[in-house]
Amino acid sequence: MSSWQVSRRGILKASAATAAGTLLGMPALVRADVKEVVIGGPAGATKYFTADVFPIIEKQLGIKILYEGTNSLTNLQKMTADQAAPKMSVVIMDDPVMLVAAKNGLISPITAAGSPNLGKLAAANVHQDGMWANYQMPWAGIAYYSKDAKAPTNWADLWDPASAGKVIIPSLHNTEGVWALIAAARLATGKPYKEAQYEIDAGFKKLAALKPSLLNVYTDAPQAINLLEQGEAAMIGGQFSAYTLIRKAAGSPVDLAIPADGGFAMPSGITKVKNGPAGDVADAIVNAFLGPEVQGVLAAKAFVTPTNPDTPRPAGYPDASQLFAPDWAFVAKERAGWVDRWNQLG
Q: 153 with 206, same domain?
């Protein structure tokens, strides 16, 4: 078990070291007339995107970014509804939702010609021949109330009777809700995550034993974190670094533990909306997110691991290769049924 001790000063120093490479390799813009570009992405990123990331890109490209901050499924619905005349040009979504967007023909591939930083990423961070790419890697573990409390050491701690009424887990409507289900399957079967992720019946049986003693099952992450900060909750089972450690850095009595039986990786994807109005400007925006300057800022502000190897990985951040990333194609295929099944649990 590790509780990541992160130094913001150290991160910012590392980020500053990349400033000399400010968006190097930015492709020439053919659509210089584009002034406003709509980007869809997670609501939880709104604050640091608008304050710290978008100003870099806006200054470089001479544009104004309009941000549609919501959850991935909502942006997927918007893209589907607007398919004939898209409003968004760039979209940021979790990988399992990107799979659906690609299948439904809602996104178009990124290329190294349009976004040169794509060529610097590891193959594992480029999907379906460039249909989308990962620009950051939040990690997930158990968030906990850290004032006069010990860090959880194992996913089984969520089922500890001493914690009854003090545990929160994410809904399966939320991508991070998958972590509790997979952890439950591993605990029930004793199999490693790579095998246990497919033992969904066992996972649901284990979760059924937990549900009656939960404080809450959330769809709104900020609300859940508020309960944790106030000490009303002791743990949130399946929570992101990008949510928890931002609050910790602001002085809240919360922290994130990576249990001894493993943590999870949650790659975040970015790509272009098919037939989006911004044209080549969308390529340039994607390129910026895949570059070291923006990724350095994100590492400092959002507590995520960079994917561009030219961006220093801050001290104390986990090696993403040591975290488990599930079979997202399987998750995307089965998730709607899991949500229905969860809702039927007593």
A: yes
